Each structure stands twice: as structure tokens, then as C-alpha cells.
Amino acid sequence: LEYETDSNDVFYVRVDRTRKVPITVLIRALGYGTNQEILDLFGEEPKILASFSKDTAASYQEGLLELYKKIRPGEPLAVESAESLIMSMFFDPRRYDLAKVGRYKFNKKLLLKNRIAGHVLAEDVVDQTTGEILAEAGTKVTKEMADAIQNAAVPCVWIQTETRNIKVLSSMMVDLRSFVDIDPAEVGVTELVYYPVLSRILSENTEPEDIKEAIRRDIHDLIPKHVTKEDILASINYNMHLEYHLGNDDDIDHLGNRRIRAVGELLQNQYRIGLSRLERVVRERMTTQDIEGISPQSLINIKPVTAAVKEFFGSSQLSQFMDQNNPLGELTHKRRLSALGPGGLSRDRAGFEVRDVHYSHYGRMCPIETPEGPNIGLINSLACYARINQYGFVEAPYRKIDHSDPANPRVTDEVVYMTADEEDNYHVAQANEALDEEGHFVRKNVSGRYREETQEYERKMFDYMDVSPKMVFSVATALIPFLENDDANRALMGSNMQRQAVPLLMTEAPVVGTGMEEKAAVDSGVCVVAKEGGVVERATSREITIRKDDGNLRRYKLTKFLRSNQSNCYNQRPIVVKGDRVEEGDVIADGPSTSNGEMALGKNPLIGFMTWEGYNYEDAVLLSERLVQDDVYTSVHIEEYEAEARDTKLGPEEITRDIPGVGDDALKNLDERGIIRIGAEVRAGDILVGKVTPKGETELTAEERLLRAIFGEKAREVRDTSLKVPHGEYGIVVDAKVFTRDNGDELSPGVNQSVRIYIAQKR
Predict the structure, then answer these.
(1) Contacts of residue 678, Cβ cutoff 8 Å, sequence gap at least 6
(2) Whole-number Å distance between alpha carbons of 22 and 74
(3) Minimal CB count within 10 Å: which of 35, 66, 71, 681?
(4) pLDDT-derived band at 555, boundaries 50, 70, 90
(5) How confident is the model at residue 187, as a pLDDT?
């Protein structure tokens, strides 16, 4: 539904982007047929009165047909088909699903209490069930009063404005706790509930157990997954009252209106698509098969479901090959937030506003770490302390401020996580504001934020305080020391370039760090961390054994010379020795780019800024020969080569040492199977895996026939198709893996045997 008004104050609605109709047509179709009913519902609204002039319908049926004509032009008109169309379009849970987050946002926007708080009542508010007066005319509605009115299921409230009194409609959602003495979580209720359904349940059941049972049974009606009639009416009402300063318009770039869809939800959507296809197949088969021979196996084919999931992991824009250049690259890639992909934006259509830093990014998304180029601002990184809540909104942590003494508030150590739209209601003090021992602000005026304003406010205005100055930035940015002295563009480049550092042979922790190094290294998952406390019994390059405090042994296997996605060497080495005492959570083995459990992306060389005989003219750099001799910047790279033995038309290929026309010298490093031995040094052109392919029998010439007659059977009709080291490559073989059909390994069709060789080289 899209609402719009023209210059004459006529209020129109578009349904599913079709032609616009006056809003009163939609209201009639929802069951309020006559003009008088509509005026009784909304009050004497100028926009409603103006819309009557454009509205030809005058009853429920006419309204339905008028709407049906616009949505389905050219189809025969019938009240029944119009009714079923409207029902299936708006109120059918199978057609669309608001999901938890949709219902949450609808409630947040349309709740009566949020719209009337802070305004003056024009008439008494009366509880419909008890007849008790909840609030008298002329009183200004407080937050508590608004809550009480909301939960008394009052259908409408009259509010005074400067020009006229207006009628505010409720969306009829109430808190379950104000009607029954039940813990909502116990019956699976996590949201406000729909009052008409709740009142029906309460009138039909009196016993607490029956009520609980009824709530569990009707949970989908209590928390509707679709839009209710009251929602539509309340949204029309909300829209008309914006000019009276009731409610507010939304900012599309505010993080309260943008949510994260994590991998589980994306996968769930693919499953849903797969299952709906499966359902279609089952229905078709049920109609065609005879009833006697029917069985679940014959009806159900799981192909559509597996295909949908495989398609998601195989070809979705958001299913990416992990950046494994170094542990920081890995960690950053897993914390990335993208506005691209299915259901998102496309880079060419995204404007400047979407890419810009918004004040609600504070503590949630890093303002610095984003790619340079066409994706700038569309791909962001999660801030250090941010987390994602159940609805997919990003939350940031804040310290609560205690107002027991209003003149001198005290900052507590209680941490509260808030979403961006919750934070908009409070003033937040900056993290490095001076406090005394008790936690009181030292200065009278304190620097802080309120929405997009950053300035000094009186200390009594603050409700929360930032937890840390680095909560604004992402992990990669927080690893830059003295960040506040950097130009933002350079900091952006620095954040992005740290991820490109190659893991070195000898790592060295930075002399000047920020304190994030250890956390980043451990959380990236490349270090081995002790799961329980104990004493090291044995530490070798491949395994660490720890005698736990309860006397049992625990073994930790280390990965050795593993190839990462970017062909770097991922290798772990122990940093504890026999007899060391370790506690739970201690790092016991370093991974790539880590040193003693700290992130160590580079080195601490001595650098001189000076001229030297003109050799550093035009940004040239002079290096000491010792950098090469002492292996300061040496790294190991591992390449993978694969040979497959397939079935060909002329017979199967074979992996063998017996290769025609190859001398013994070329075969000296191959084992009896024809596979290179581990530890062999190889250069370009050397054979890694010996393989022969059958050659087609050709017509023999007279000479060949004569030779064959004299020397007996000619060499087998095979040609050499061995896997050789490509041109320009060299190194040492660190691993060889053999996969065969007989061992139950999954190979692609037509392949009988596959051999993978890993070659490491120092650079």
C-alpha cells in the first residue's frame, strides 16, 4: 500500500503499484461502507472529506468492486471474487509473512502510546470493559499514562492540536501481562498480542490452564504474521496526522530502519523456496497417481530442496570465497555487512545518501573501513563491540547513568545494549569524559551526543555513557595506533591494507600496539587456545598434550603447512614447553601472523627518513641486505596441483611409474605408484604424477610392420600425460593426497583416481 495526497488534500492509495484510488474506497472495502461510518471512524478529517468528492462508491459492495477494477482491470466484476481477492491479498498468512521483525516494526510505528505521549487530551479516556476513566480531558499524556491507555485496549483517543481536535486510532495490540497473570515467554509470546483474538480467548476460557492452552493454539492469530484491518486503518490515521505533528517520518538510512539478514535467514528463505517447489511437485503427483500404489517415497522428491540450498552456497552473490590472506582478513570478512546482493541495492543505482556515514552508525558500523571504488559505503564492517539482536538490528553497548541524586548523576558499570532508534531518545556522554572515584562527572558540562548533534550538555541531561572510545571502529581500524592523528582517507587505506599482509616465516609482535592485538588473534581462530587449565606434559611441533586438573589428558593437534585460500602457508607452532602451567583461555600455539598470541602482521624494522646519494629519488626505497640474509620478510607459499585419471573412449587412464620414453633420471623422485615423494625438491618441467593415456590404434606402415615382426610386440599404445611442474614454478613437495573411488571418496563423474600435490616455496 502506498499513500499519497494531492494539492487539493485528496488522500489516495495505490495497491501493489496499480492506479491510485481515493482512500475512502479502501476503507469501504474493509467494511466501513457509508460516508457516515467512515466519519464516525476517523472524525471530521479534511482529507477524508476531500476524498469523498473523488469517490463514486457509496457502500461496502461498491467500494469492493471499485478497488477490484483497479487491481484486476478487465476482469468480470463479482462481489465474491473481490472479497476473496482482498482477503487473500492482505489477510492471508500464506501469501506473505511479516516475520517477527515486521510485526515488531509495525507495532513500534503504530502503537497508540507512542503517538499520544506528550500531547493534551481533548476528551476523557474511558476503559471499554470497566467504564473507569483512565485520563481526563485537558491532561498532558505521560509515558506511564500512555502505557495504561494502550493496554486497556482503548480503540481511539481524542487529542487537542492548535487547529482542531483529532481522533487517534489504536492498532489494538496490547501487552498480554495486563490481562492475564501468565509469563508471556512460557506460552511462546514475545510480542504484543492482538486484542480482538485475546478477548475471544478470555471470554471462552476461565481456567488459567485452558487460557494457556488456547494461547498456544492460537498463537498465529494472537501475533498475526500479516497486516490486520486495524493496522491499515491506524496507518491511514497516522499519515493524516503527520501535519499536526503527531508521529514522525522515517529516515531510510537510519540504522533503526535497516536490518542485517544473517546467513541463517538467507538460508531459511532458500529452504522456503525449495519446500514450496517440493509442495507443488507433491500436489501434482497426488493428482496423477492412483490411490492404491501411492507412498511417501513415490510422492516426495527432495531434489528441489537440495538444489535451492546448493544454488545458494554455489552461486549466491553473498556466498563468497573466504579471504584467507591473514587472520585479520579472515576475521574482517566474517564481520562484513553488505548492502548488495539479492533483495539489496545494486552498485550502479546506489546514490550518495546510502553510502554516506549516518549518525546512527556510531558504535554499530565502522565509519572508516569500507572499500575504495564502486562499493564504497555499500560494504561496511561491524564495529568492535556491536552485536545483532533477534530482529537483525545492530545494537551498541552503553553504560547506564544512575539518577538517584538528580543534581549529580553517577555512571554505573551496568552495560545496556541499545538499537539505533532506542538510542535516539537519550543523551549519551562520550567515553573519555573525566569521572571521579565514585563515578560522578568531574565537569559541570559534559560533551556528548543527542541524535545528530554533538555538543556540550549539562551533566544531569545524560542517561547513558559510551563504553570505550574504540567502540566506534571496526577491528582492523582499532589495530591502528594513534588513529586520531590520521587523516580519515589514509586510515581507510591502512585498515584495508592490513588485510593484505602476507604471513611471515618469523613473526614479531608490534612494539607500538593498541591492545586489540591479542583479542583479534584469538577471535580469528588461528591460534590454539587451552580449553581447560592444566600442566603441559608434552609439546611437539604437531601436538600438545596437557594433563588437566582432574588428572585426565587432553591432546591438541596443530595444523602444519596448510594451504590457505590465497595460497599462503597456515602453520601452527607451540609456544609452551613441558612443565608449563596453563589456564583456560590461554594461547598455547601460535598460528600464521601471530606472535605469543598477539596479532603480528609485520615487522619492527629501523627506518631512516633521509636522502642517500640520490638513490631514493622519486619514492625509491633502499633496503639493507640483512633483510634478505636474516629472513626478515621471508614467507612461505603453497601451491596445489591436481592430476585426475579418467575413463576415456579408448580405455581408462592410469597413474603409473611406467611412462614411455622417459629416462630414469626424471623418475628418480617418484615412488612405485608414480607419485612424487614428500620432501623432494622440484623445478619447472619435473614430473609430479606419472600418468599414461591410451592412444588410438593407427594403421601401421610397412616399415613398422617389419620392425614389429623382427622385435616382437611394440611398446603399449599409450602416451605420456603426466602432471609436470608448470613453467617458472619451483619448491619442495610438502604433501601428496590420493583419492580413489574404492576408498569411498567423492569424485566427479568419469574420474577413477585423483592425486593432489602441494608444493611449498620460500619467497
Answers:
(1) 733, 734, 735, 736
(2) 20
(3) 681
(4) very high
(5) 83
Give the three-state DSSP class for 649: coil
Question: For the whole model, what pTM was predicted?
Answer: 0.87
Residue whose grid cell is 559541570: 444
Does 163 map to a domain?
yes
Enter the C-alpha cell of residue 204: 471462552
Cβ atoms of 567 and 761 within 8 Å: the answer is: no
Predicted pLDDT at 716: 59
Given a contact cutoff of 8 angstroms between Cβ atoms, the answer to whether 572 and 566 are in contact is: no
Mean pLDDT of 158-174: 87
> DSSP letter at 34?
S
**Backbone dihedral region of 30: left (phi > 0), alpha (psi from -120 to 50 degrees) or beta?**
alpha
With cut-offs at 50, 70 and 90, classify the pLDDT of residue 715.
low
* 35/57 Cα distance (integer angstroms): 10
Of 89, 64, 101, the closest CA to residue 79 belongs to: 64
> Residue 332 domain-assigned?
no
Give the start-end residues of each E strand in 650-722: 651-652, 654-655, 681-682, 687-689, 691-694, 718-720
Which of 449-488 are b and which e, b meaning 16 or more Cβ less than 10 Å from the residue's Cβ?
Answer: bbeeeeeebebbebbbbbbeebbbbbbbbbbbeebeebee
- HSE of 582, CA atoms in CB hemisphere, 13 A: 29
Q: Which residue has the cell 562520550?
A: 430
Q: Within this chain, do residues 76 and 123 fall inside the same structural domain, yes or no?
A: no
Q: Give the H/E segment covering residue 12.
A: strand 11-14
> Are residues 506 and 594 part of one domain?
yes
Which of 12-26, 615-629, 703-717 is predicted with the least confidence, judged by mean pLDDT?
703-717
Q: How far apart are the first and last CA of the chain?
A: 62
Average pLDDT over every residue of 336-342: 92
Backbone angles phi, psi at 761, to 5 degrees: -135, 145
Q: Are residues 61 and 161 in the same domain?
A: no
Query: CATH number of the domain that 407 lies in?
Result: 2.30.150.10
Mean pLDDT of 321-336: 94
Whether the CB-CB separation of 667 and 687 falls below 8 Å is answered with: yes
Q: Examine the domain organization and report whether 679 and 754 are in the same domain.
A: yes
Domain of 381? 359-473
Helices 195-204/208-217 angle, 10° precision: 140
Tell me, what CATH number does 66's domain have?
3.90.1110.10
